[in-house]
Amino acid sequence: MSVTGDVIRQRRKVLGYSQTQLAKLVGADQKTVSRWETGETEPVVSDLVRLSEVLDVSLNTLAGKTAAGLDFSGDWWYSGQAFGDAGERIDTLELHIEQDGLWLQLAGARARPVSEGSYAWTGEMKLYDSEAFMGWYVAADGNVRSKGTLYFELHPHGQMMRGGWVGQSYVAPVVQGWCAVARERWVAEALVRDMARTEGQLKAWPTLKP
Questions:
Q1: Most buried of 69, 93, 108, 170 (most Cβ within 10 A)?
Q2: Which architecture does CATH list for 3-63?
Q3: In terms of pTM, does the model score above 0.85?
């Protein structure tokens, strides 16, 4: 399978399109889309432009180029404000990331039992201008209805990010809080504490020590 074909297939599935639906949107037929995805044929430039628009990916991503040479795939730590019956708290959990060009697929573990207001979740983010991720999350546990949006500022070296979330929670229909992601747990937790202390008014990245 070609890199371009793999990106087309993955983005089509993320967006919930069948091959026939995607073909109609880009002005092709189902057999052509199938051949693109298997690598039997490659899209011409005009097809790539339409695919980029419909699948919401850059031409670089369709060509298999990663963002700024940074590799975000692997295991990270997420730390963020959470709200429950006892009020505000900081939850820290393991976060697995799979990268597809400018896109990140997220899989967050529970920080605590569901009965205490925690849940496993999945999500997706896209990198913009090599400096910020924007995306969404949704609960992956049973009947938990929590969902919302994510925004992260990316550290220039790519080893951490900080930002916030806004979404639905069982405590209220619209809730927001600070959050951070880093390779090390203590870094993610320190970033969240700094965000909460300054209400997000951080003009520089802090010098962190364990």
A1: 108
A2: Orthogonal Bundle (1.10)
A3: no
